[in-house]
Write a structure and sequence with these properties.
Chain B: GO terms for molecular function: transmembrane transporter activity. Chain B: The chain crosses the membrane at residues 330-354, 375-397, 409-432, 453-470, 490-507, 545-564, 766-788, 809-835, 865-886. Chain B: Residues 772-879 form the ABC3 transporter permease C-terminal domain. The complex is a heterodimer of chains A (321) and B (899). Chain A has 321 residues and is an alpha/beta fold. Among the domains of chain A are: 60-84 and 103-275, P-loop containing nucleotide triphosphate hydrolases (Rossmann fold, 3-Layer(aba) Sandwich); 296-321, no CATH class. Chain A is 30% helix and 27% strand. In chain A, strand 4 and strand 5 form a beta hairpin. In chain A, helix 5 (132-142) crosses helix 6 and helix 5 packs parallel to helix 7. Chain A is globular and about 75 Å long. Among the domains of chain B are: 55-104 and 267-312, no CATH class; 111-255, no CATH class; 508-575 and 753-899, no CATH class; 586-739, no CATH class. In chain B, the strands form two sheets. In chain B, strands 1, 2, 3, 4, 5, 6, 7, 8, 9, 10, 11, 12 and 13 form a 13-stranded mixed beta sheet that branches. Chain B has a six-stranded mixed barrel with strand order 15-16-20-17-19-18. Chain A binds chain B through residues 41-44, 46, 48, 79, 82, 84-86, 104, 108, 111-112, 117, 121, 123-129, 138-139, 142-143, 190, 194, and chain B through 1, 5, 8-9, 360-361, 364-365, 367-372, 374, 434-438, 440, 443-447, 898-899.
Chain lengths: 321, 899
């Protein structure tokens, strides 16, 4: 029985519904979500912390690059996202799949249907004794598409993918007969074979010259635009940021900066670098900034009306002593 | 993922795998057949050496007097049918039931004296038994006279008191008829108390005198000359055959008769596998007949005493063979087990090589969404495609090898086929289950889990406990007679695994020490090589598990073979006593001795005199040997024979003597030999004088001139000869070829010991196994190197860009494998040397050493060390070969691969 007291106090049911009402979670609508991701390799008393609380949000259909120095943890991140590696702690979710709570079966489904990826080594992406078309069809066959109709559909899709990536002429050739750029584009087709929602690429142009790199990026961009696939490219090449919408920098296992690329009113491309502020308010200052001002151990912060001032920890000249 | 395509791509590796599977199946399915065949051949040889009367079963019945006899042949035949039917299944399987076989019934009188002859002068000491043998008329040819007819009656002229006596017409073999003067028409009065008359009406020749039928009735073909105890005249016994019509009269109650039924055994049906069952069958048959209610004649024997006596030496022969077989089987099981383990290991290694080759493709497939089941299925299918056809081909090919098929042939083949497939099916999903979880190539080695340490400690403890139990318990169980002991079969394997585990665990320590030393030295190659060896994790375990048993079995074979060889030589020396020996019953004339001295090859002749002497004035006798012990010791120097020191001469009339321990208490005593002589006991001779006098008790050794000193002259009845290649035939010729002079040579004795059945099989299979295992060892090292070839070539290529020469690169490869091979060689050598000691009691070699006890395995380390050194050399050569082949590839091509 419900009785109104006339007072503005919430009823129990109101409190309950308030409690269970979903508030927008961190990155709830992101296609790829990494929250405070930690990955630690332990061997014989030695611990290597490859990811130390990494945050990353990628929207659906975005094309981003993850850059960082060697050992910064970017390959670990990609391994985690591709389902080849399991993080030690944190949250990792791709297209609604929780990567920490996957069973072996989920993992298999994830690899078959959700992600596709491309390794740096051109040779590692393709089986040398299969033609480009057969290589593209391999993931479809592994995913268990049987029957004559689906086989024909698979063959058609393989050809379509190769055409889309402008390498239709390579369909009947084996990897040994292809250039490095062509091989990587076939690898992109392989990665796209099962219509994944996310494509991950680990240094896809690492072994290529600039012209071939250009082709590969064009292919990735086309896949991104025309098929609506979210693409994450890991690279240590800083010029990549000119090719993608957003570049995420990783330093010491954490996201440290983001560079956004946008066109200004004249049509010129402007790239602006931002520092990343994580959920608990941590901020990584770029190393050249801190070293230019000889900032060490601690800094002094001052809240201004529209910004926060960061000062080296030494007496300011205007401070009266 | 098409396995056929995968195989086509990696056809080189697949071919290696296929060839290995083929050779392994040939060995594992072929060797047991050869073994079984040689067991059978040796059993056949043993059984064929003796006559049918030894191996057949004779059921005999000697009823007491006063039992009513038979009415005719039918009763005997019915009894025969019963005795054949009464055989238990194990025995029935090997009985010869063919019609027209040599199974038969017989009635024989025994010990029938010839009381006199009618119409001819008497001959003393003659015994003529009268017998009826079933089927004898078909097996003889009458050379004179007419076949014996029906019995009649006759009165003995001049002996009216005897009245009418039954007269048997008998036939006598032609030879004995001459010997015993039993011409046609000779009429004999047989027996003293209830005499009968026998008249010789025919002389016969046996149709198949050497055949099994007559083998049972040799008493009818040959005169048996027997000297009764205490008598000085020989008795002549012969059995004469009478007609079927005489049976009722012959088997009358007043004769001493033996009824016999020969139940023939088909010796060809007995083989190594049913020998034990046959033995059991005969024993059961004996027991059954003891309690058999069937009665041929109507009488009751004494309580608990069987009326039937079953005579055959078959179980004894088979048991002796089985004892010998058990040793052979145990030894060959070790060999076969070693070969099987090593072959399976090498197959596993080759499978791993193929898995390593398939890894990139499978890893890619796995990353692109292949399930572990699919990975396992594809890999296993590829391995099965590579392995199954050669296994089937090898299995089929072994059917060309003559020899019986035992279950081990099928089981071994199946194991060899399934092992690599199963290995691939397990290894591949494990490798690809979680590609990156907690594993990074740049991290140091993982710490061993306590669980694994406990498991390893358990295996080692079990192996040691097993070896201890085997040593204390031995194989003195029933199981030994019925085949190998299952416990014995497991202990060597467990010991090998334990040794491998210990070696694997201890492997890093010596390596660390050497690495520490090389790190301080100037040259870089040893340091880098050892560092590579220390990091070569994947290469270590399996090759060690292969090399260790390979070497252990080879070394064990060498030790066992060497021991057997030494024991056989010792047995031959003990049988001969010198390079050659001449024994004579009578004294050897000086001229004969001179002739012997002149036989080519004879260097030294030591004369000796052996005889039996009366001890004191009592009835006790002793064997006396008069020999110059010092000369004899010089003669046998360098042989296993040990000759005691000659006794010191006390001077005076007393002859110094060595005596066996039982005579030592007598102190000084007199013996009566050629002359009476006083002996002064100067020492004890233990264990006889092998080769000269085998008596260990009541033995007296005196100087050669003892008789002369006692007032007679030197006598010589024995010559001990030293020399090279003394020909037995020439020696026999020199001694005049007399039958009472026995000539033995060392070579002859050795050949006799060597002829022991199965000896050749054991020695040959050890040699064969050693060769096979050496081949596998070489393959192991090469495969291990090939598996790690990609990593190594890359590492070497980097080093070469830093200035490493090609020669140094080859040296690095050799160095990388050296610690493993050296340590495994040491461990294998140690294990091989320990195995005989651990199994010492379990495997008794005495059956192969002329019955002489083989006290302990003789540890002659030369051959084992040579084997181990050979293994090391061969594997090093393999490593060098591998490095030399790898040298051809250009630096650029290697460094680009996979980068």
């Amino acid at each position: 029985m419900e009785t109104s007291t006339g007072l503005d106090t919430p009823t129990l049911s109101e409190l309950e519904s308030e409690a269970v009402r979903a508030r927008p979670a961190f990155g709830e609508h992101s296609h790829i979500l990494c929250d405070n991701l930690v990955r630690i390799y332990k061997t014989e008393g030695v611990e290597v912390v490859a990811l130390q609380g990494l945050d990353l949000l990628v929207d659906k259909g975005e094309l981003i690059a993850v850059v960082g120095a060697s050992g910064s943890g970017k390959s670990t991140l990609l391994n985690v996202l591709s389902g080849l590696d399991v993080p030690t702690a944190g949250v990792a979710r791709v297209a609604g799949t929780d990567l920490l709570a996957m069973t072996a079966k989920d993992r298999l489904h994830y690899r078959r249907q959700v992600v596709g990826f491309i390794w740096q080594q051109t040779a590692r992406n393709l089986l040398p004794y299969l033609t480009a078309r057969e290589n593209v069809r391999l993931p479809m066959r592994l995913a268990g598409r049987r029957g004559r109709a689906s086989r024909a559909a698979a063959a058609r899709r393989a050809d379509e993918l190769l055409e889309l990536l402008e390498i239709g002429y390579c369909a009947g050739r084996r990897p040994g007969e292809l250039s490095g750029g062509e091989q990587q584009r076939v690898a992109i087709a392989v990665a796209l074979a099962n219509e994944p929602q996310v494509v991950l690429a680990d240094e896809p142009t690492g072994e290529l010259d600039s012209e071939n790199s250009e082709h590969v990026f064009a292919a990735l961009r086309r896949a991104n635009r025309e098929l609506g696939v979210t693409a994450v490219i890991v690279t240590h090449d800083p010029t990549v940021s000119e090719q993608v919408d957003r570049t995420v920098g990783i330093r010491d296992g954490r996201t440290s900066s983001e560079t956004l690329r946008r066109e200004d009113s004249d049509g010129a491309i402007i790239a602006e670098e931002y520092a990343v502020l994580d959920r608990v308010g941590r901020l990584q200052l770029p190393r050249d900034f801190t070293s230019a001002l000889a900032m060490e151990r601690r800094v002094r912060l001052e809240l201004e009306r529209d910004h926060i001032g960061v000062w080296p920890d030494r007496p300011r000249p205007e401070d009266p002593q | 993922m098409n396995p056929v395509l995968l195989l086509r791509v990696h056809r080189g590796t697949a071919t290696v795998l296929a060839l290995l599977a083929f050779s392994a199946v040939l060995l594992v399915a072929g060797l047991p057949r050869m073994f079984e065949r040689s067991y059978d051949t040796s059993l056949r040889g043993t059984l064929d050496q003796v006559g049918a009367n030894i191996t057949d079963i004779t059921v005999a019945m000697r009823p007491p007097g006063g039992v009513a006899g038979l009415s005719g042949e039918d009763q005997l035949r019915a009894a025969y049918t019963h005795f054949v039917a009464a055989a238990p299944p194990a025995l029935a399987a090997v009985l010869d039931r063919r019609p027209g076989g040599h199974g038969h019934s017989a009635i024989k009188t025994y010990g029938t004296p010839v009381a006199g002859r009618i119409g001819s002068p008497p001959r003393a000491y003659q015994y003529v038994n009268v017998a009826w043998l079933e089927g004898a008329d078909r097996r003889v040819r009458y050379v004179a006279g007419a076949a014996p007819g029906a019995p009649s009656v006759m009165r003995v002229p001049g002996r009216p008191d005897l009245g009418e006596l039954p007269l048997f017409e008998v036939a006598v073999a032609a030879g004995p008829s001459r010997q015993m003067d039993l011409k046609i028409g000779t009429t004999l009065l047989l027996g003293n108390s209830r005499p009968v008359i026998a008249r010789v009406t025919a002389l016969f020749q046996p149709l198949e005198p050497g055949g099994p039928y007559w083998n049972h009735n040799l008493d009818a073909l040959n005169v048996t000359v027997r000297r009764p105890p205490g008598g000085d005249v020989d008795e002549n016994h012969i059995t004469a055959l009478t007609s079927t019509a005489s049976i009722p009269l012959l088997s009358r109650q007043d004769r001493e008769l033996s009824y016999e039924w020969v139940v023939p055994v088909r010796t060809t049906a007995i083989d190594a596998r049913n020998a034990a069952a046959t033995t059991g069958g005969v024993i059961e048959y004996r027991r059954e007949l003891t309690t058999d209610a069937y009665r041929v004649l109507d009488y009751v024997s004494a309580l608990g005493v069987s009326p039937y006596e079953v005579t055959t030496a078959l179980p004894e022969m088979l048991q002796r063979f089985l004892a010998r077989l058990a040793t052979a089987q145990a030894l060959l099981f070790l060999v076969l087990g070693g070969v099987l383990v090593v072959a399976a290991g090498v197959l596993g290694l080759a499978t791993r090589l193929l898995a390593e080759r398939l890894r990139p493709a499978l890893a890619l497939a796995r990353a692109r969404g292949a399930s572990t089941g699919r990975i396992a299925g594809t890999g296993a299918a590829a391995v099965a495609l590579a392995v199954l056809p050669p296994v089937l081909a090898g299995y089929g090919l072994t059917f060309l090898i003559p020899g019986p098929v035992t279950p081990v042939v099928h089981i071994g083949t199946l194991l060899l086929a399934l092992a690599p497939i199963g290995y691939a099916a397990v290894l591949l999903p494990l490798t690809h289950r979680r590609p990156l979880a907690d594993r990074r190539e740049d991290m140091v080695a993982r710490r061993v889990s306590p669980r694994r340490v406990v498991l390893e400690v358990l295996v080692v403890a079990l192996a040691l406990a097993g070896a201890y139990l085997l040593r204390t318990r031995g194989l003195a169980t029933d199981a030994a007679a019925r085949g190998g002991d299952p416990f014995l079969m497991l202990v060597p394997a467990a010991l090998t695994v334990a040794a491998a585990l210990i070696t694997l665990r201890c492997y890093p320590y010596p390596l660390r020490l050497v690495a520490w030393l090389t790190a301080r030295a100037r040259p870089a190659v040893p340091f880098v090589g050892l560092a590579l060896a220390a990091r070569a994790r994947s290469v270590t375990a399996l090759p060690m598990l292969i090399l260790l048993p390979a070497l252990a079995v080879s070394v064990f074979g060498a030790v066992a073979g060497g021991t057997l060889d030494a024991a056989q030589r010792a047995a031959a020396w003990q049988a001969t006593g010198a390079g050659a020996r001449v024994d004579s019953a009578a004294e050897l004339a000086p001229a004969t001795v001179d002739r012997v001295r002149r036989v080519p090859g004879v260097r030294t002749v030591v004369p000796a005199d052996r005889g039996t002497a009366q001890v004191g004035l009592s009835g006790r006798t002793a064997t006396v040997v008069a020999i110059d012990l010092d000369a004899y010791r010089r003669l046998v120097a360098g042989t296993p024979l040990r000759v005691p020191q000659a006794p010191a001469d006390p001077g005076g009339r007393a002859v110094p003597a060595l005596v066996s321990p039982d005579l030592y208490a007598l102190g000084s005593f007199e013996i009566g030999w050629h002359v009476r002589m006083q002996l002064a006991v100067k020492g004890v001779v233990q264990g006889g004088l092998p080769g000269v006098a085998f008596a260990e008790r009541s033995l007296i050794v005196v100087p050669y001139d003892a008789s002369r000193r006692a007032g007679s002259r030197d006598h010589t009845t024995m010559l001990l000869i030293g020399g090279d290649g003394v020909d037995q035939a020439r020696l026999t010729e020199a001694t005049g070829g007399r039958r009472d002079i026995l000539v033995t040579t060392f070579e002859g004795s050795l050949a006799k010991v060597n002829d022991t059945p199965l000896t050749g099989t054991i020695k040959n299979s050890f040699a064969l196994a050693t060769v096979a295992l050496a081949g596998y060892a070489l393959l192991t090292v090469i495969l291990a190197l090939v598996i790690g070839a990609t990593d190594r070539t890359r590492a070497l290529s980097y080093l070469r860009t830093l200035g490493l020469s090609e020669r140094q690169a080859a040296g690095l490869t050799v160095l990388e494998i050296t610690p493993l091979v050296l340590l495994t060689a040491c461990a294998g050598l140690a294990l091989g040397l320990v195995l005989p000691a651990a199994l010492g009691r379990g495997i008794d070699l005495s059956a192969y050493a002329g019955g002489q006890a083989v006290p302990a395995y003789q540890l002659n380390v030369t051959t084992p060390v040579l084997l181990a050194a050979g293994l090391v050399a061969v594997t090093m050569a393999g490593a060098f070969l591998h490095a030399a082949i790898g040298r051809r590839r250009s630096l650029g091509s290697i460094l680009r691969v996979g980068e």
